[in-house]
Predict the 3D structure of the following.
Amino acid sequence: MKPTIQSIVSALLFITVTVVSSGQTWDATSGYSGVKNPNGVWSFGRKWSVETEAMDLLTRKWGTDGWYMAGTKGSPSIMHLNWSTVMPGPFMWNGDNRNGYCTVRWTCPLPGKYTVEGEFYGADSRDMDSHVYLVIDGTLRYSNHVQRAAQAAPFSEAAVDLSPGDPVDFVIVWGGTGDPGTSSVTGLGAVITRVYAPATGTASVVNGFVVGVTMGEMGAGYTNTPIVRFIGGGGSGARAQATVSNGVVTAVTILNPGKGYTTPPVVVIAPPYVSPPRMQIAPMRLVSFTNLTEGTRYQAQTFAQGEFSDLNAAFTATNSAFTLAVPGGMSSNLYRLAVAPAPVQAQATAQVFGGFVTGATVTRGGSGYGTNIPAVSILSNGAGSNAMAVATVNNGIVVGITITDPGIGYANGARMIIAAPPTVELWPQKTSKAVQLDVTLLSPYDNYRSQFTPLLGGAWIDLGEPFTPTATALSQFQEIVGEGGFYRVIHEP
């Protein structure tokens, strides 16, 4: 049975959290809502694994200020205790874990560098048995064990790089001793502060001159005046100076309007801190095609279960070569380029009765068959043989299938495959092993370089020329050098 409020608060515990000035701050106590879930960046739910990012929202109201999971006997649940002015909340309770682990989640709304500070604490007079966890973007950053009333488990994570959508989870798990129904209420006091973040602005152009900058994000953590740059827009010569107060950029003043701008240039305000890029690596294959005709539209396609299907959008060739990146375990002979619009392969299903293929239903007539009559194959799926059929084509579309031999011994599930229509196509000339480098936490319009080394501690080798991202995230494809090794991306001032 769920513990009563009177039994929860038998000891008062003051929580002290240091908040860095000039940053944006989110507080778990003030961010809790017994009315909305999610409530802005805060949400309240349950997870089945501490480090997973999957979370179910608590959907059932408990009293006037609590949540629990529908279909359970009240656990996991989260409450606030509005009348308590000394002990912060929210308060978390799991029961015996059979319905998952109670979780308070904060979802990052803006890119930047953050601190995550606060503590879990025992909030039940009958002692505790709760394992407590702080998980940031799917990585366990802190764990502890709260075993008695008023015991605190403080955490402090500084300089955490986060992107929009990254979750910060506060999770509790009943430790396995004592009565889970009366001795596992755990309080949470947490403050998340954006301590470093880039400022942004939008340029205004009049008659080819940059006449002003409207501030967007003021940023956080500035200790020096950042450089302001204008990128693109068709003109040149514009210069500006930023004004910094209390760690934020409050204004950008135009020093020279430049000339010749046909569109507003991108305003790049240097960040207060350039975060180390974060990289994820996935094995890939690079499938290379040659002899493309410039100006011709092509459609990349893959072959599976007897037919081709489109990959990505069609494109117009700008030169004679094209490289397609595909998952690393796939064979290159499953891919082709078809001149667009690519004809569509017809589909049909077999009708089986008494072990005989007695008919067929055309489910997709396809296109591009012209006067060609495509072959029809009937696959037995392990049972049956000798069935045969012919297709009927009208205006390049398969309009019917006629069974010429019903065969024998077929079971339901027999598959019918209609051959593909004639296609102007190109096949791969080369395939190579590669990796996909997904890089985040980039500073837009700064310079970066990808590097490789076959051995840790060895010399780093540059991979191509430096690159300048226009967003905070970028994907690259690199052929594997030798037998593989280690990759990194570095910032070049």
